[in-house]
Every structure is written in structure tokens, then in C-alpha cells.
TrEMBL record:
A Pfam family this chain is assigned to: ABM
PROSITE patterns noted in UniProt: ABM
Domain ABM: 3-97
InterPro entries in alphabetical order: ABM_dom, Dimeric_a/b-barrel, Heme-degrading_MO
Name under which the protein is recorded: ABM domain-containing protein
Membrane-spanning ranges: none
Length: 104
């Protein structure tokens, strides 16, 4: 069954354009990862000066995702320019899910 990995970010409303641009420009190294299926960056509503973002990736299995997190590609994808101070409120929160139902 497919596996979903989502990283939740709370981004300062004043820095959403810069945050999104960083995602557009970054090399994710996902396309060549065995088992990778799909990626989306989701933007929620602004609440109290903070916008909720979710990086949402779909994998063929939990094992495929876990293998990627232990790969050189993962290290390269997470290497880069430091995040500007104040852009992200707190630490990103990872949530992972096994897909149990697929609607047609």
C-alpha cells in the first residue's frame, strides 16, 4: 500500500513568498528515488501571522520512504542555505501514514 510522509511548517506570513521560492528552486533528488510517486507543497490559511505549509510526498511503501531517508540523496536534498531567522516558527513536524483506503 502507498505511504504518505508530510512535514508541517509554520511560516511567518511576511516570509511566505521567500519560503515558497526556496521550495521552487531547491533540488529535492526525489525523482530518482526508488518508490517515490508524487510530491506537493500545500499552503493553508493564515492565522495570527502564521501560515501552515505541508510538504506532502507519496511513496510506494514505508520501506521505500525509509530507504530514501537513509540515502545520500536525502542528505543532499536537505543540505543547502540556512533558513533565514524567523521564517519558520518552531521545528517542522513530520507525520507519516499508511494509506488504508483509496477512492476511485
Amino acid at each position: 500500500m502507498p505511504y504518505i510522509a508530510m512535514n508541517n511548517f509554520r511560516v511567518s506570513a511576511e516570509q511566505t513568498e521567500q519560503f515558497e521560492e526556496r521550495w521552487r528552486k531547491r533540488r529535492s533528488f526525489l525523482q530518482d528515488a526508488p518508490g517515490f510517486e508524487h510530491f506537493q507543497l500545500l499552503r493553508g490559511d493564515e492565522q495570527e501571522g502564521v501560515v501552515h505549509y505541508v510538504s506532502h510526498s507519496t511513496w510506494s511503501s514505508k520501506d521505500a520512504f525509509m530507504d530514501w531517508t537513509h540515502s545520500d540523496s536525502f542528505v543532499q536534498a536537505h543540505r543547502g542555505e540556512p533558513i533565514p531567522k524567523g521564517m519558520i516558527q518552531g521545528h517542522p513536524q513530520l507525520e507519516c501514514f499508511d494509506v488504508v483506503n483509496i477512492a476511485d
